[in-house]
């Protein structure tokens, strides 16, 4: 059974301000917990209905599924919930392929993009301060464990881009951009993706050095691709041109 | 104000069996309704708090946002809701690039895939009988209007693939598949995508003529890509190689 203070802590961690205050976040589900336990992330506490984890005894609490239901954020019932410490991230190095998000709002989109970064070996994900928090429970869930391997940096995006070395290209997707399949692009650069409704903000747009576009092969009625979908296509396109591609 | 029978009808249409019985589905939100009104789909009735639509008067009902809240499936409040007739679809022709889904379960994934088909000019989406219904309100919402332009066919997927002309390639994604970026692939074929948890079923696997894989550029810890993300990368890869690509 959960103690009152444990319930209070878990519930509070669904809010960003409490995650920041405690430096903790919640993950639900066996699969994700296994992944995070085998990562460098530090466990705070583990609540489980099945004694199947190899975690420190003093941090493990056996509970029932019924207990879990009371604190769960999930629609489908889980048998385990864990609290991990939010890792500190150092300033991102300006190297390799990086992805930057300009106020992406949807937790599912951010989670999918983190998973994509992991798949395509993108180590640093740069987020504007207005981007949804990556330790939001819905984001954590959508990353399927990738949250432990991709470094997510929240910073002033325009300032970050302004201070990049001049030779480092900054790509962005625009309707008037050039065909991403035909343009020379370098996997040593930053790919900026914009907000779901408004795209890339004017301030950040000024810092884009190469405007790209995913050409539409259909009858050109759709307005735009979903941001996570666009991220998938960009990362695929940049990665396949890497000389080191498997 | 809604009549009692209208409320009953709208609520019933959140269930597949009533959508099938009435041949109707619901869409919420101005943007989607505008798109569907300008499509060949036939309007059944329109409920709106703003008199901004160019629809037949006898099918239009002015309501308040409060009325709408009572019947809405949406988390964020909308100002309009419409009911459309489900169109009849004819047997798909075996030509061009087609996408087939083997028991995709998540409404958001199906909606995103329909939107992708629209973007990449894929006219026919073939779904196994176990795939989530495309007129599910969450799917309709995620398609952002593309539901009116892509023909979605529900049929026995194995039987459909078995009866294709022999020269038509059937692609599927498998861990042991060959690098999609390097294999010769033809945009005259079928791309099969599997269920979120179990992938492509053994029966369908036997009918795949070319096994493909999206290579992982990261440290190979992630298990797989989300099915909608994989669809985005496959469609991008097949489309960019089309001789007619813009």
TrEMBL record, chains A, B:
Organism lineage string: Bacteria, Pseudomonadati, Bacteroidota, Flavobacteriia, Flavobacteriales
CDD domains membership: SpoU-like_RNA-MTase
tRNA/rRNA methyltransferase SpoU type domain segment(s): 97-235
Presence of keyword Metal-binding: no
Protein name in UniProt: RNA methyltransferase
Organism listed in the record: Salinimicrobium profundisediminis
Family of the protein in this entry: Belongs to the class IV-like SAM-binding methyltransferase superfamily. RNA methyltransferase TrmH family.
Pfam families: MRM3-like_sub_bind, SpoU_methylase
Keyword field: Methyltransferase, Transferase
Gene3D superfamilies in UniProt: 3.30.1330.30, 3.40.1280.10
GO biological process, one term: RNA processing
């Amino acid at each position: 059974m959960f103690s009152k203070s444990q319930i209070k802590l878990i519930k509070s961690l669904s809010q960003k301000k409490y995650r920041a205050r405690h430096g903790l976040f919640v993950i639900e589900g066996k699969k994700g917990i296994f992944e995070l336990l085998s990562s460098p992330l530090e466990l705070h506490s583990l609540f489980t209905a099945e004694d199947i984890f190899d975690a420190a005894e003093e941090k493990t609490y056996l509970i029932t599924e019924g207990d879990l239901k009371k604190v769960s954020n999930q629609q489908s019932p889980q048998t385990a919930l864990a609290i991990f410490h939010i890792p500190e991230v150092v300033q991102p190095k300006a190297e390799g392929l990086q992805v930057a998000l300009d106020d992406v709002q949807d937790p599912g989109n951010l989670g999918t993009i983190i998973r994509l970064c992991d798949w395509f070996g993108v180590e640093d994900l740069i987020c504007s301060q207005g981007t949804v928090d990556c330790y939001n429970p819905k984001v954590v869930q959508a990353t399927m464990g990738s949250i432990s391997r991709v470094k997510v940096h929240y910073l002033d995006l325009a300032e970050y881009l302004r201070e990049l070395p001049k030779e480092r290209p900054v790509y962005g997707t625009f309707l008037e951009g050039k065909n991403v399949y035909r343009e020379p692009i370098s996997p040593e650069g930053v790919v900026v993706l914009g907000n779901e409704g408004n795209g890339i903000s004017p301030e950040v747009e000024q810092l884009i050095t190469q405007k790209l576009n995913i050409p539409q092969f259909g009858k050109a009625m759709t307005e735009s691709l979903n941001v996570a979908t666009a991220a998938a296509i960009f990362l695929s396109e940049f990665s396949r041109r890497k000389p080191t591609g498997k």
